[in-house]
Amino acid sequence: MLELIDIGANLAHESFDHDRDEVIARAAHAGVGRLIVTGTSGPDSVRAFELTQDRPGRLFSTAGIHPHHAEELDENTLSQLRGLLEYSSVVAVGECGLDYFRNFSPQRDQIRAFSAQLELAAESALPVFLHQRDAHEAFVALLRPIRQRLAGGVAHCFTGGTEELDAYLDLDLHIGVTGWVCDERRGHALRAALPKIPLDRLLLETDAPYLLPRDIRPPPKHRRNEPCYLKHIAERVAAGMGRSVEEIAAASTANAERLFGLRDAPR
Fold it and tell me: Fold for domain 4-260?
């Protein structure tokens, strides 16, 4: 069986409240034995951390403020994040970045929150879990000056083409690939860029419950994405990169272990 790590699953989301244990069990049965639970707000980061406490060595988490929630970042929230980052199961700062597609928070607040979290990542010596949508130039402009002070990072849910990929590789970032690669409507640029992703920079993620791969057959009735579908994503990535799924799984797992400092999965 393939050994996979889902580096981005929103398991604290309310859609998992009624069957979270079953979702985690299905993931393990499909070879996804370790998962990183994404924190997107102060309360959400706390919930993500709490989930890790019941499953040491299998669940890890991030702590951060998504750009949608940038207005909420104040000194109390920063202090809360700083406290969470002291725990070994919290392995990255984020999800943080810029989202000018929706602008749920004003751009000035997004820039402020992103800058503060980059400083927090530098202070804590943890990698950053990054979000960018329709804000590439501003995103790179904020990230580049501090990059040498950071312990790495991942361009989470990368959906761009070769130009954005080159910029992120120049910043020595890892590239997180989701089920977007399976979307026949929107995934053209990503599929074209896949062969240019170095194996030692590739990470796999579902972004569950979002981004259910559109080419799963038969499609699940609930339309909710789950970590158990990571193998399907790995197969599509392997096909797009002209490599075996075993090679893709081994590389992405090793990369995740290295970037996030993950322990071996319990046996």
Answer: TIM Barrel (3.20.20)
